[in-house]
Give the backbone structure.
Amino acid sequence: MNKTGGLGVTIIVTITFFLVGMMCINYLTEDVSLTRASDKLDCSNATGISDGNKLTCLAVDLVIPYFILLIFSAAGGHLTAKFLIK
């Protein structure tokens, strides 16, 4: 395979990985919502929960931004690896 074909395949794989990762976020948001519910962590009741539960609520809220960052960095890393490794 020549350089142009290899670059084209790399771009297609990167876009596919990005799209599949972004589609998986819908499933994560449902789980985050269920975890934050009043019968689980009760994150909406800021005065009635302990400091540990508040910290856990913050950690659960950071799952989606970290997942998006992971998708961007993996897709970008795959694309830049093609340019750096010859």
Helices lie at 3-36, 51-61, 63-84. Residues 3-84 form one domain. The mean pLDDT is 89.
